What does this fold into?
Amino acid sequence: MNNDIIVAVSTPPGEGAVGIIRMSGNGAVHIADKIFLPYNKDVSLSERRNFSLNLGWILAADENRIDEVLVGIMRSPHSYTGEDVVEINCHGGGAALRACLQRCLDMGARLAEPGEFTKRAFLNDRLELEQAEAVLEIIRAKTERGLQLAVKQLSGKTGRFIAELEDRLLGLNAMVDASLDFPEEVGDLDQEEARMILQETIGTIDSWLEAARRAEIYRDGIELAIVGKPNVGKSSLLNALSRKEKAIVTDIPGTTRDIVEEYINVRGIPVKLMDTAGIRATEDLVEKIGVEKSRELIAQADLVVLVLDFAAGIAGEDMEIFQHIPAEKRLVLVNKEDIERKAISEEELADKFSSARVIRASVKEDYGLDELENAIEELLLPGKQNADGLEIMVNMRQKNALLKSLDFAENALQQIGKVSLDCLGVDVWGALESLGEISGRSLKEEVIDRIFHDFCIGK
Ligand SMILES: Nc1nc2c(ncn2[C@@H]2O[C@H](COP(=O)(O)OP(=O)(O)OP(=O)(O)O)[C@@H](O)[C@H]2O)c(=O)[nH]1
Ligand SMILES: [Mg+2]
It folds into this structure.
């Protein structure tokens, strides 16, 4: 095991009431002792109780006081990393914190690499691999909702789920191996049961990948493009949704030339809004470039709101843009509902946009925006009511492992009865091993145990 002492500032950069320096490694308390002058000089830091908070000063090399601090001690193994951990609570702000950090380095600690405290927690069996990964997700979570999901993973939900899957596949693996190695005692493989186990496995992995896709939306957010003809109220919509006066709004068509971006939070989903130049056939070179960009954005965005104007009616250009938007990304917002003389009828809307969700709104009077937010959520997370709470954080590595496992399981299911037990075993083993990449569990010994346990061979 790595025995050096690592240290880092563990609070975010910038001004704050307190800034915390965290040091981990056996001997960390000793290092802190050398640079710390306690209020109560009779008892040195090394002699203090575990989990005590100790008031005093951090001293410079020339014994001048750098900062008044509170030092917390958590000795091995009862700490986050499982090693001796010292936390020095300094006053926030750069200078004192940096000087304290430097003193720890002077005394022989080294600067921690990103994520190294969590890595040590994993290496010292304080955290499961997924829990360690969840900690990193927590640090990165963008919205409250994303944070809740990360916390859920940390509590071991993922771990239990994987363990169940592994267990089922281990059973199947034992069935295959037993029929292969002890045909006399065990007989042929029960194909019906094997099929059932594989179907269950595939179903579970599928639903898990779906839950992961939902969680990804909360974690990574989506991009939403606002498109439509000039002057329909696209920039007004961006301003209303973000509650800022970010984009310029005028009654002159062609006001927006560049793409204006703003981040908002829709029911916990981080959404990047992109307001575009009004799309129309034009001779103006600058506008033409803007229109071209709008087309690109439609392709790139996860959702597209086509804004229409009750005052202006539906033009050929509107239908052309609408056709450009893939069906699963389409939302139509008919704006300026507040005006008296409407140029768009209900029949026309029903007729032309039957395949899309149509929302009547007045950005000016703050009407219909709630419905728009609902529609965004429903398009992204269909069936949310039923599936609420079933989101699970999965990172790239875990997702790839799941896809691999799914692949093996599907192969195995197809091959039952068609190939030798040997070949079937390879796929079942592959499915298991891919899951092992997530749990970090080595299965080799358990497989052997299972054969002897389930079939009582060699009793
Ligand atoms: N009556 C009424 N006017 C609105 C509403 N929403 C926007 N407007 C007005 O419509 C005009 C155009 O608004 P913008 O938000 O600049 O429209 P845009 O689609 O961004 O226009 P371009 O940038 O030129 O493409 C402004 O005068 C707005 O005040 C609404 O709900 N009702
Ligand atoms: Mg605009």
Remarks:
- Confidence is low (pLDDT under 50) at residues 455-459.
- The CA atoms of residues 196 and 413 lie 9 Å apart.
- Residues 191-220 form the longest helix (30 residues).
